[in-house]
Amino acid sequence: MESVTHPIPPVYDTSSKILILGSFPSVKSREGRFFYHHPQNRFWKVLAAVTKELPADTIEGKTCFLLKNHIALWDVIASCTITGSSDSSIRDVIPNDLSQILSQSQVAQIFCNGSTSFRYYRKYQQPLTGKTAVQLPSTSPANAAWSLDKLIDAWSVIGGFL
Fold first, then answer.
1. Is the pTM of this model over 0.90?
2. 160 domain-assigned
3. Is 159 inside any structural domain?
4. Among 136, 143, 141, which Cα is nearest to 112's?
5. Order of strands, edge to edge, in the sheet holding 77-82?
6. With contact defined as beta carbons under 8 Å apart, do 21 and 117 qualify?
7. Residue 75, beta-bridge partner list
8. Closest to 124 in 3D by CA, of 90, 91, 89, 77
9. In what order do the strands lie in the sheet with 71-75?
10. Domain containing 115 — which CATH number?
């Protein structure tokens, strides 16, 4: 187990309408210094399908894609003790402060990518934000029970908020 601090700043601007929260960056994302950097994670494919756009392949392209579609992106956890990328090993959680994103944007709905982010959001941030989050199925390759088509179908709910 290793104590790790979140190395990636949030992506948002004043026109962001939804906030998507993950739990904590994977080893690959921490190394790449950007969200969902593991090539097997389906996050970018799902968002591209939901927005009917081609997926971006650079950090700059992904950032522009998010902002163009009014999507803010961050994680629930600021630091924790974790083994590798395993959400189930997360301990000693210190949550991220979402107040800056929420006060400097138009975020009306929060979505959580998977059960871990949803659980920690409800525990740490919901009492402060007063906003109920919607849990979406994880785009992680570890969530093999969900095919790409099923994920796209479930995640299509965000389209109504963009």
1. yes
2. no
3. no
4. 136
5. 2-5, 77-82, 91-95
6. yes
7. 22
8. 77
9. 71-75, 18-22, 109-113, 133-136
10. 3.40.470.10
Structural domain boundaries, residue 120 = 2-154
pLDDT tens digits along 53-92:
998 999 999 999 999 999 999 999 999 999 999 999 999 9
CA–CA separation, 100 vs 93, rounded Å? 20
Nearest-angstrom CA–CA distance, 101 and 23: 17
In the numeric block, the tokens 């095919």 are attached to 147
In the numeric block, the tokens 């990636």 are attached to 8
Residue 30 counted as domain residue: yes
Q: How far apart are CA 79 and CA 122, in angstroms?
A: 17
Q: Which residue has the tokens 């990518």?
A: 113
- List pLDDT tens digits, range 110-162: 999 999 999 999 999 999 999 999 999 999 998 999 999 999 999 999 999 98
